[in-house]
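User: I'm writing a tutorial on reading structure tokens. Could you give me a worked example: one chain, its sequence, then its tokens, then a sentence or two explaining what the tokens reveal?
Assistant: Sure. Here is the example chain.
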Amino acid sequence: QVQLVESGGGLVQPGGSLRLSCTTSDLNLDTYAIAWFRQAPGKEREGVSCIIGPTGRPWYADSAKGRFSISIDSAENSVYLQMNDLRPEDTAVYYCAADRALYCSGSGAGMDYWGEGTLVTVSA
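And here are its predicted structure tokens:
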């Protein structure tokens, strides 16, 4: 069973930064599309960012542009989401997901594998 593991969440003040990590020992992440999603209480899941493993091509939701940066480290078999200038509205559980067809789904539909999530809380 494929297991993606997220880490790096926590409590941060508005304007602060966090770096989320997604890793696994079950897949070579640089052969997949790896996406970050988030879900806040009472809200639908939304795509935040995605990277096409073989090319490194990134995609960002409008809410993430200019503040978040996605990257992949093949040696560490990890995908990172650097989040800067965090806002209270960024508070959510963040999930990483992998798609073997190299498709970045904004809704998460069709992604093949998911992690269990890491909680990000932005609050003063």
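What the tokens reveal: The longest strand covers residues 92-99. Residues 99 and 112 are 5 Å apart (CA to CA).
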